[in-house]
Design a protein that fits this description.
Two copies of one chain form a homodimer.
Chain A (H helix, E strand, L loop, with lengths): L1 H18 L2 H37 L5 H18 L2 H36 L4 H26 L8 H8 L10 H16 L7 H19 L9 H20 L2 H12 L2 E3 L3 H21 L25 H31 L1 H9 L3 H13 L15 H8 L30 H19 L9 H22 L15 H17 L4 H9 L5 H18 L3 H9 L19 H4 L6 E3 L4 H10 L4 E5 L7 E6 H12 L1 H20 L2 H14 L8 H4 L12 H5 L13 H6 L13 H5 L10 H12 L10 E2 L4 E2 L5 H11 L3 E6 L2 E7 H12 L11 H5 L5 H19 L6 H8 L1
Parallel strand pairs in A: 2-3, 6-7
Antiparallel strand pairs in A: 3-4, 4-5, 7-8
Helix pairs in contact in A: 4-5, 4-7, 4-8, 4-9, 4-11, 5-7, 5-14, 6-21, 7-8, 8-9, 9-10, 9-11, 10-11, 10-19, 12-16, 12-17, 12-18, 12-20, 12-21, 15-17, 16-17, 17-18, 18-19, 18-20, 23-24, 32-33
Chain lengths: ~900, ~900
């Protein structure tokens, strides 16, 4: 087979010389090269394995069998460690521990506050000081700590995870530093007793865990480096985050899907379920072992009656809760965004706050904790209850008021907090809802790790309770059915309200499931589902979800969803939104072009085309690769090399005849690997024999059109003896070592001259990693399809090609603009300028649109002479 | 703007004449044409609207305002009707009604059987006859009715829905006939009391409803014709089907997602929830209105204690249930497939059964009902209970046996059936499980509309109960915790078992949610989740799911999933699996080529390439379009036309001078619209000015290479005066009318000659609908990516292109083979022949592989001279 290969190469070499196939070859070579790089990893592992076996053969002594056994065991263990379920179990276990420890610390912090407050009951002022100082210190510490260690840990983390799962790499969001900052910051923030949640940050923490665990595990096996696998694991981690936070595996999985994904691969479903269930299980088992609970039960267990959970005639009340929650949720999102925007816009405030970054958190905390001070205003809004205690009392299955008289109820334990000698329960509830509403919206803007789910959940429960208590007061003997009296259960209303409001704020339906898992009862399933769906319908038509709102505020690179009724977008096409002025590099461009392209644009990848005339897309190259190429060309080693060679040539010219010079040149040539020259090296590149060459006549045409100062044309190259070859030597390792010998005696002007010379050389794409299959669309692809493909495959950009020719590029930015233009403004649809032409109804519309395109692209190419619009230079070349 | 358009056209016309751009133009024209066709619908609606407004202007009399108002109201209503939620509500409402009516009828049928059996208690033989005859008659009727009306209604319907949602069109599966057959057949089948389920068929029925409702609604508005919207609605309908069957909206949505989708668009999530919730709500409200229930509760309500649902130490038992259920589920699927395959393979049986199609159902029913006859063997397996009654008793929260003595328990109502004077409860349960297991596997092979979910669910519950009762007997005072005695609840084990076994058979996790919704209690969430996940893990590693198994048996065109550990598939590429021998048609092919291509292949679409030499992919054309083209060319109208013209020409030649002949020809030419000829008509085709033409030199080359008998070359065409033009006239409507005037006096031989002549003409792709953007892959695309793209976008096939050139095609079949080859056989991976070359580790492997490709394609082209392998003819043309 090796002999065959050599023959084949020889044959190809001949063909290359005969037909001058060089340009064709390079496109193919680029692909092969990329494939080779990709596969080199595999090969390495294979060779390692064979080496191991060799070692075994070699050591065939007495204990050979023993060793073989050991090695096999080791291998087996390593291969097992590589399996997904081990990873998921470890992740679940670790997250359950983290969740439990965080909960434990928060409980201690809250107890400490209560203890301080209780111990100072002799003096109200001291009490107030203690009540206020404690959270201010904690929040300030949390904000400062996060700010110093990792500012990425601030906030919920769900918007960031949504973006990362979309395929965008956010730097520093998945590091160990962020992990530490998030965990400690969150514990302090929640320990302060502010209306903040733990669920959003836990999604982030779980993802951090997964990323770190992935890195750790890759020390044992090699398969943890696969990117698509990492994304799958991150998706599972999000489920774990919610699951171990609420001990709600099913709800966690669904919530994380709804919140983070656009398209969900059902084959990853089990990962989330598995890890979240395991995590929730361990989380609850820890509580049992700590003697907090007798057995594994729900976190906020309710005890509603099972046989008659609610009457059919109560359903309108549930529906009202749903609709009101929808408006409330939209208001919450709007309010939250308003606060952020207000602070940003007021330059005076902004400037002041930027200087004293910790002042804002301290001020907000001071305000909130002053208002909840139990002997003060707090007495009217159950201020002394922690978030957890409020929720437990709100979900209580007893009715607080009978026949409108609140006093009749025998308040036990924490429920007493809702009772006030002068004020009705209804007033307390209303005050609680109103105050907590703006407090939560304000508190979630503090730059500490915090979520908004739990506060919203509690407010929703309070609202539901309010409606429930009203119903109970209205129908003291329950709504009449056939004889039996079933009194109304206000706790059930609280459950419905909690699910509806949190569903409205997050735009999810799965809060219903979370509620069932949190309360351990599913008897109210229909009211909850109805309310959640109504709340979603209302909220989604008014405002984006809280997470999308944060994405917009933070300007994260996320693609918005297509709207509910997205039928109108079927007639916007890629050609309407694509950028026609694509930055590209040609195969035979010189380093100067590279330099210019790198200076002007800032795209992460650049298109590699065959030539400016043909515009045939060969692949895409990462910016970093090109920068490396450029710096290699202009770097000091090469310059020193040049000096050395110049000196040597000088010397030779002085002393010897020109014959030896020729020989030297020949020697250099054989070391070179360049495509434009048909040397033996070049022909070694594996070619694709079946690829036909009908494009050759077009390709062979020298593309001098775009570069008038193009000295090294391919004809000159092929002669192989031009002066230029002196500069083309690739920097070898041995040459590098000789650097010390040469003196850098060039003046600045000489250096500049030398650099100019270097820039005029043709680029050598040899050692450059080229992606041979960048994603391509055709110009007629609809916006809907483009959006689907982008979100499904997590694309960042896609090239638009027409019969192999690059005619444009669409990136997330354009797509986002197009979608937002036609989605957000309801009714008045902002459409791309050209889409409207197609609707005008006459058959000439197509022509007009394309005519406009032509004019537009002509204008573009006129204003930007460096970017050759293909139609232009094409016409010239004919 | 119109003037501009005309100028533009004139300009283009000139350009066309100057540069001879015709071939380039056609590719563009094809795209424009397709776009125009697509948009004609829109235009029509616009013109209708304007006509309506005109009418209003015209009628400006006294009641004009009134009319405007009416029209506006009508429009508003119609636009509302078009909205998704109206559709979903209607669907939910209708399905709830269907579900309720079916349930009602089934209940009546079952009652009738009991009544008959009870009334004849004097004579055991008569009892037996009644017990056996009733189901045999019902099942036979069901099988016969379904067979006659719509054989597509047979079976579960979930495999078919899975395939349809995958994007494959299955004929006759969504028609009204099928709907009627399915509903009536299902009612009879379940009314017989056989161990069959209603859930699978309900998924199908809901989809049928959605499809029919879509058709009905499209009478009012136009947007119901969108295909992608239909798919979305079908997905929602599947959720409705499960939701209204079990009154389980959440579980229904999740189950339908898991069972039918590969990738799920989260934006469709709400549709399913909305429709399923509404449907479940109506379904349960109907029960309340019918006084069956006091209020809306779960279907199989349980009453387990809430405060201490289970002990931590019971978890191993739950895990055991999970693992055993996993094995049981795999066995069920295997057994079911075995029965089908056995019957198929035994030719004698098969032949006999094919003749008497109703005999098999009757025999199976006879066997099953004989064994369940209560006074006979049925007394040992609670044979007199219906499926529903068994489930209710199995989920009972009381313990049947205490301290191993079953007699102590006070059996009430139906639970008495489990008690037998001589036999222990354990024996009864074991017999029930074993007998029902094979009975269900057998019964689901009967050709009636039926599902397997419910029987499996009941068997699982029985198995769980068995374990639970054993545990209760083992620990009569419960497992010791801190003092308090909590006895073991066997009902909880039954819930766990039901979820685990049904999860194992269907490979879903969401059975857990269905169980919670069915029982109305979520207290056992952790045991259920653990058992379901374990059962899934075991079952998925042993057997495909029941639905996938049926898909394989029925050989439906479905793409299998990538396995759990699908890392090894990253190094199989499209080029390894693609079919290189693509059937294509070229732009300038003649009708004979078309004819041959249509005869040899049977693909639904054919690739249209620029020419056999360049192989540049221009688009794809549906087979039907090509057939229409061919039949138009060879049809009788054209032949009569030819005769008429021949006669006319004859006459003219006889009588007049040749001058008039010329004129006539000219007139004909102007009517023609052909691309190959640069007439005025051709230049009117809207062109894409920005598309560059570097490919032209390649394209201009006349492609005579492949067709030596190619008479009408483009040069001849351009002269515009050849004899051939006589035959090229497109059949106009007025010409058609004249058909009657001409006598068809051609002999058969003349006709054959004429047809031969027609076949040699170039194809006119003018009125042909061309898809300008068929999906393309590059040869380096990995199998994983290909699978993802295929399943995400629901592709049927994709073309593999290399720089615009068509080099292969991948269809579902190849992909299925590749995946099955490397997935199903665990450990011993069957790889495509060429993939192994890449792993060999030497750098020459690439060359070898491509070399092999070359050899292979050369061989192909040698054996099939009509299919020009591009590499071959390319080399010739140089």
């Amino acid at each position: 087979m090796a002999a065959d290969g050599t023959d084949q190469r020889a044959l190809q070499y001949e063909q290359t010389l005969m037909y001058g196939r060089y340009t064709q070859e390079l496109g193919v070579y680029a692909k092969e090269e990329a494939a080779r790089l990709r596969e080199s990893g595999q090969r390495r592992s294979v060779s390692e394995r064979s080496r191991n076996l060799d070692l075994l053969e070699y050591n065939k002594g007495r204990c050979a069998k023993c060793r073989i056994c050991t090695v096999r065991c080791q291998k087996f263990l390593i291969s097992r460690v590589g399996e997904d379920w081990i990873f998921l179990i470890l992740l679940g276990l670790f997250m359950a521990l983290v969740s439990w420890v965080v909960d434990f610390c928060i409980a201690i912090c809250l107890q400490a506050q209560k203890w301080m407050y209780g111990g100072l009951d002799s003096n109200v002022f001291l009490q107030y000081l203690a009540w206020v100082t404690y959270p201010v210190v904690l929040i300030t510490f949390s904000a400062g700590f996060t700010q110093i260690l990792a500012p990425q840990a601030v906030g919920s983390g769900i918007p960031e995870m949504k973006t990362i799962l979309r395929g965008v790499v956010l730097k520093e969001y998945l590091t160990f530093k962020t992990f530490v900052a998030k965990v400690i910051g969150l514990t302090c923030a929640l320990g302060s007793g502010m209306p903040l949640g733990k669920e959003g940050p836990f999604v982030h923490i779980a993802s951090l865990c997964a990323a770190l665990l992935s890195k750790f595990m890759s020390l044992f096996g090699g398969i943890y480096e696969n990117e698509s696998r990492n994304i799958e694991m991150l998706a599972a981690a999000c489920a774990v985050g919610v699951g171990c936070c609420f001990a709600a595996p099913i709800g966690g999985v669904l919530f994380s899907i709804e919140v983070t994904s656009t398209f969900f691969a059902v084959r990853n479903y089990w990962r989330g379920f598995f890890a979240a269930t395991f995590s929730a299980f361990i989380f609850r088992v820890l509580a049992v072992w700590n003697k907090d609970e007798e057995t594994i039960t729900a976190l906020f267990k309710t005890r509603f009656r099972l046989d008659f959970p609610f009457d059919l005639q109560e359903l309108p009340a549930f529906a009202v809760i749903g609709i009101a929650s929808g408006f409330g949720g939209a208001l919450f999102v709007y309010f939250n965004r308003l606060i952020v925007q207000f602070i940003r816009k007021q330059k005076a405030i902004n400037k002041f706050l930027m200087k004293k970054r910790l002042l804002y958190p301290a001020l907000v905390t001071l305000l909130v904790s002053t208002l909840t001070f139990p002997p003060g205003f707090g007495q009217f809004m159950a201020g002394k209850l922690t978030q957890k205690e409020s929720l437990v009392t709100l979900l209580d299955n007893r009715t607080w008021c009978k026949e409108g008289i609140a006093e009749e109820f025998d308040y036990i334990g924490n429920s007493q907090a809702w009772q006030h000698p002068q004020v009705n329960v209804f007033v307390t509830l209303v005050l609680f809802i109103v105050m907590k509403f703006w407090m939560s919206a304000l508190a979630t803007t503090i730059p500490v790790p915090c979520g908004a789910f739990m506060p919203v959940f509690v407010i929703g429960a309070a609202f539901g309770r309010l409606v429930g208590e009203s119903m109970a007061a209205w129908f003291p003997d329950g709504i009449n059915t056939d004889g039996t009296i079933y009194p109304i259960v206000p706790g059930g209303y609280a459950v419905v309200g909690a699910a509806a409001l949190s569903g409205a704020v997050t735009h999810t339906v799965s809060t219903a499931v979370i509620v069932f898992e949190l309360t351990g009862q599913i008897s109210h399933i229909l009211p909850v589902m109805i309310a959640v769906i109504l709340a979603n319908a209302v909220a989604q038509s008014l405002q984006p979800s809280l997470y999308d709102s944060i994405i917009r505020i933070k300007k994260l690179p996320y693609l918005p969803e297509l709207g509910w009724g997205h039928h109108e977008k079927y007639n916007i096409r890629v050609e309407d939104i694509m950028v026609r002025d694509v930055r590209y590099i040609t195969l035979n461009c010189c380093y100067r072009d590279l330099h210019n392209v790198l200076l002007t644009g800032h795209l992460k990848t650049l298109a590699l085309v065959e030539s400016a005339a043909s515009m045939i897309l060969l692949g895409s190259i990462e910016r970093a690769q090109l920068q490396a190429l450029l710096s290699l060309q202009l770097g000091r080693p090469r310059r020193l090399e040049f000096i050395r060679e110049r000196d040597a040539a000088e010397k030779k010219r002085m002393s010897v005849v020109s014959n030896s010079d020729c020989e030297y040149d020949h020697q250099r040539t054989s070391q070179e690997v360049r495509f434009q020259i048909s040397t033996e090296e070049s022909s070694f590149s594996p070619t694709r024999p079946i690829s036909p060459k009908p494009l050759k006549p077009a390709l062979k045409r020298p593309s001098v059109v775009e570069r008038p100062i193009d000295i090294p044309t391919s004809l000159q190259d092929q002669s192989g003896n031009s002066l230029k070859n002196l500069f083309c030597a690739s920097p070898d390792a041995e040459m590098m070592e000789e650097d010390g010998d040469v003196e850098d005696d060039m003046t600045l002007r000489e250096i500049a001259e030398w650099e100019e010379m270097q820039l005029d050389e043709q680029v050598n794409f040899n050692n450059c990693k080229i992606d041979p299959a960048p994603f391509q669309l055709v110009e007629r692809t609809s916006l809907h399809k483009t959006h689907t493909i982008f979100s499904l495959l997590g694309l960042d950009h896609a090239y638009v090609t027409s019969i192999g020719r690059l005619i444009g590029v669409v990136s997330l930015k354009e797509l986002r603009k197009a979608i937002e233009g036609s989605v957000t403004v309801k009714g008045v649809k902002v459409r791309p300028p050209l889409a409207s032409f197609r609707d005008s109804g006459t058959s000439s519309s197509e022509t007009d649109a394309t005519e406009l395109h032509k004019l537009w692209s002509r204008q573009k190419s006129a204003s930007l002479p460096r970017e050759h619009a293909p139609s232009e230079c094409d016409e010239k070349s004919q």
